[in-house]
Specification:
The mean pLDDT is 94. This protein is an alpha/beta fold. The protein folds into two domains: 8-210, Spore Coat Polysaccharide Biosynthesis Protein SpsA, Chain A (Alpha-Beta Complex); 227-300, no CATH class. The protein has helices at residues 18-29, 50-60, 75-85, 104-112, 133-141, 146-149, 167-173, 183-194, 216-237, 245-272, 275-300, and strands spanning 8-14, 37-43, 65-69, 90-93, 98-100, 117-121, 124-126, 163-166, 199-202, 208-210. The chain has a seven-stranded mixed sheet, with helices on both faces. A three-stranded mixed sheet has the order 5-10-7. It is built from eleven helices and ten strands. Helix content is 49%, strand content 15%. α1 (18-29) runs parallel beside α2, α7 crosses α8 and α9 crosses α11.
């Protein structure tokens, strides 16, 4: 299909994605109700088996999946590289740890063809089959729901795990590859400034399933990155940080009381056979600590943050 006219390009940044990339690309190659589309995997310097998986998918689905390379680190640089070679009228973004539902592309394109629409997105839900307590907790808390980002005080935005726009608009704005985190919000806010009367639409049925973090360390790092994003967006867009006295006190109490709450919840957790119930206060404290430390790192950073 590459070399002929395509309706849509799907861009997937790829960095150390060996555990999840195969499922992602299998799902993208099997989209229903649409034939004229391409999938661009932007390999971003992985040192695991990601490249081999991507190349195998390109060989298995010639004319649909292609692999390109971006040497500059970061998902935003990778997405910009994908935009530079995209052939579709519309461009959709998802991540290598996501598995779009079979009708995802068709539903997104159905809404994007409305000329009044600027950007579309679907819900991001937990993938099935993850058994770790951390992943089960994140699924229960629905941590990546678009509902969270649609309520942002600066203005609603959609996550690039599940986002679609017109290619001409995406190229006009581009991603800020100087940002380490917060690029989803920055891209959507600048897109709305570019086309202020365009609508943002949440698309029912266009679901992407996400593989949540499996360990405490990865959960902490995820929220540390969100904290860094808070500060980076505040510096660039004048977004207020959540530093009210009440918010700081609430966060402090969540951390200090977490062990007590875990102990108090143990009897009920044993009765229902669900350890996540008991551990939820501890995992929430990990999220709080990660986010606050990330904010401090970004406030006092003397060098560019990196993706380690």
């Amino acid at each position: 299909m590459i070399g002929r006219e395509v309706d849509a390009t799907i861009i997937v940044p790829c960095y150390r994605a060996e555990p999840t990339l195969r499922a992602c690309l299998t799902a993208l190659a099997a989209q229903e109700g649409v034939s004229a589309y391409e999938v661009i995997v932007v390999e971003n310097g992985s040192d695991d088996g990601s490249l081999a998986i991507a190349e195998a998918a390109a060989e298995a689905h010639p004319g649909v999946v292609r692999v390109i390379h971006e040497p500059r680190p970061g998902a935003y640089a990778a997405r910009n590289r994908g935009l530079s070679v995209a052939l579709g009228v519309f461009v959709l973004f998802t991540d290598a740890d996501c598995r779009p539902s079979p009708g995802w592309l068709a539903r997104m394109l159905e809404e994007l063809r409305d000329a009044t629409v600027l950007m579309v997105g679907g819900e991001v839900l937990a993938d099935s089959g993850q058994e770790s307590l951390v992943a089960r907790y994140s699924a229960r808390e629905n941590v990546l729901s678009q509902a969270h980002t649609l309520r942002h005080p600066r203005g609603p935005f959609l996550q690039t795990a599940n986002l679609g726009v017109r290619l001409v608009d995406a190229r006009a704005v581009g991603f800020d590859d100087a940002l380490y985190s917060g690029g989803d919000a920055d891209f959507c806010w600048r897109l709305r400034e570019h086309r202020p009367h365009g609508a943002l639409r949440l698309v029912g049925g266009a679901v992407v399933y996400h593989a949540h973090r499996e360990t405490l360390r990865d959960l902490y790092r995820q929220y540390r990155r969100y904290g860094q994003s808070d500060v980076l967006l505040a510096k660039k867009h004048g977004v207020s940080l959540p530093h009210t006295v009440v918010k700081l006190i609430v966060d402090l109490l969540r951390v200090l009381l977490a062990p007590v709450l875990v102990v108090l919840r143990i009897p009920f957790a044993l009765v229902v056979g669900d350890p996540v119930i008991a551990l939820s206060p501890l995992l929430r404290a990990v999220r709080v600590l990660g986010r606050r430390w990330g904010q401090l790192q970004a406030i006092f950073a003397r060098r560019s943050l990196h993706r380690a």
